[in-house]
Amino acid sequence: MNFTIKKANLENLDAAAELFNLYRVFYRQPDDYEKCKNFIKERLDNDQSNIFLIYVDNKAVGFVQLYKLYHYVKLAKQWLLSDLFVHPDYRGKGFSVALIERAKQWCDETEACGLMLETEKTNDIGNKLYPRCGFEYDGLHNYYYWWK
């Protein structure tokens, strides 16, 4: 299946927001397209993330979203692969791998030292996909979070 990957901008806002909303629903969050659209618009307006959309027949069917971080050991920029999603109707066709490869290319383009990500332990698909794409599991660190 032929596809193209494009860096998102405000012209792609509706497509990015629709996929982002579906992604959040996948992670058991309420369906809220407008809130997702505002969130993505703010990220794009303020240059706070980089989103790449994958298109099949001029329809956006998946995305990857990257946030800039800095690695304290490598003393270099790195990218957090925060969000990766392919519409269920288009899964199993290699689009997730293509989006990850585009994220790796973005590292080269921006002189970043690499990518990092986290996923739920229950995300069986992701936990098989990421090692296949060259990611190494970091069993040395626990990830914690604090919510206000």
From TrEMBL:
Q: Which Pfam families match?
A: Acetyltransf_1 (PF00583)
- Superkingdom, taxonomy of origin: Bacteria
Which InterPro entries does this UniProt record tie to the protein? Acyl_CoA_acyltransferase, GNAT_dom, Streptothricin_AcTrfase
Q: Name one GO molecular function term.
A: acyltransferase activity, transferring groups other than amino-acyl groups
Signal peptide segment = none
Family matches, as PANTHER family: L-2,4-DIAMINOBUTYRIC ACID ACETYLTRANSFERASE, N-ACETYLTRANSFERASE
Positions of the N-acetyltransferase domain: 3-148
**Under which name does UniProt file this protein?**
GNAT family N-acetyltransferase
